[in-house]
């Protein structure tokens, strides 16, 4: 399970840190805004749900993955966009809520399947 945790941590770093850096560095103008919308409204929420569903497999050991993912998002956006922007705190809270909800649903489904 440790290997999977490291893999998900690396994926979180790529999605939440490298993708914003790539968007800021290589995509300029209106296309950059479109890429940011794609990241904020499609890629990051989907990733939060996926990491939450994975965390539900072993909630005792993996509960921190959705939290770490949301914190990495906040760090990445504050570094590459605007330090201290409060709107990004709201996005991080929503991503955290999505991850926790997916984790709890995954645990619930897993317990129902075992009965």
Automatic annotation (TrEMBL):
Which top-rank group of organisms is this from? Bacteria
Its protein name is Uncharacterized protein
